Amino acid sequence: MYLYKDEAGVVLYVGKAKNLRARVRNYFSDDQLADAKRGRLSRGARPRVHLVDNEKEALALENNLIKQWQPRFNILLRDDKTTRTSS
Question: CA distances (Å), 44 to each of 36, 38, 56, in order?
């Protein structure tokens, strides 16, 4: 589990990875650098790591942190649509 913050401490992105080294290496790979990743890096963002025991815990923590911080680059889980149930 990791999150990127800018110089001001604003959370830009929350993510998870089984192999954080590979994920960060991917962010710096020129041929694979997507616009969102480029935006995070250009703002001087640094990853902050949270270790968890299993993938279920990582998913729950990721979901909670995205809801709490509403990071700019987490588009899919930003709203409450993932937790709504029909009445």
Answer: 13, 10, 30
